[in-house]
Amino acid sequence: MLEKDLYPPVHDFLEVRFRDRLQPLYGELRTVTAITDTAGGNATGKWSKPDLCTVAFWRQKYGCQWQLDLHGFEVKPAGRCTNESVHEALNHTSHVHYAHLVWHQPKWEEADSRCRGIVERCRRYGVGLITMSDQHDASTYVVRVEADRHSPTGDAVDEFIETRLSESDRAQVASWFEQVR
User: Fold this and answer.
1) Is residue 39 a contact partner of residue 164, using CB atoms and an 8 Å limit?
2) Parallel/antiparallel/unpaired status of strands 28-35 and 128-132
3) Do 144 and 130 form a contact (C-beta atoms < 8 A)?
4) pTM for the full model?
5) 31 - beta bridge partners?
6) What angle do CA 149, 142, 152 make, to 5 degrees?
7) Which of 163, 162, 152, 156 is nearest to 42 (CA)?
8) Left if phi > 0, otherwise alpha if psi is -120 to 50, otherwise beta: which for 70?
9) One-character DSSP codes across 2-20
10) Measuring CA to CA, how many Å separate 158 from each of 66, 75, 163?
11) What does the pLDDT look like over 152-176, one tens digit per residue?
12) How many CB atoms lie within 10 A of CB 152?
């Protein structure tokens, strides 16, 4: 299976199940999820292109301010996830607040040295780890490591949104800001 074959089902998971994880208990959440593997041009660097991203715009019910968080997702098919994959996802934190590695691993075994090694690296570097055994069954997706929040510069966040999202997705994000001003 090719990596790009996993993008549509992962996109669906992010839109439905992962979005629920971002929803504040009483607050509001707006999201846009996009496949971004080829966005941003060739001059952006080898490891600076998350395969997918979710833009989350949210606030607590009694909060005065809205928060914008970018989540980047690096997708790896079975047999193609290595320690280097964790570093590739980590590199995305120069542009996104949360980096995640999504691994199609049909035979997850906690005791397996490869699985254990990926988990340990993800924890060490604050990269989220999501595994799935069947990419088309959202119930098989498991968040094994929660991603830590990173702090890309405001300019890097703006650049990511400007160069990786489609015109319609950028307009959607811009409309959120207009609505709350």
Assistant:
1) yes
2) unpaired
3) yes
4) 0.95
5) 56
6) 15
7) 163
8) beta
9) -HHHHHHHHHHHIIIIIHH
10) 16, 23, 9
11) 999 999 999 999 999 999 999 999 9
12) 18
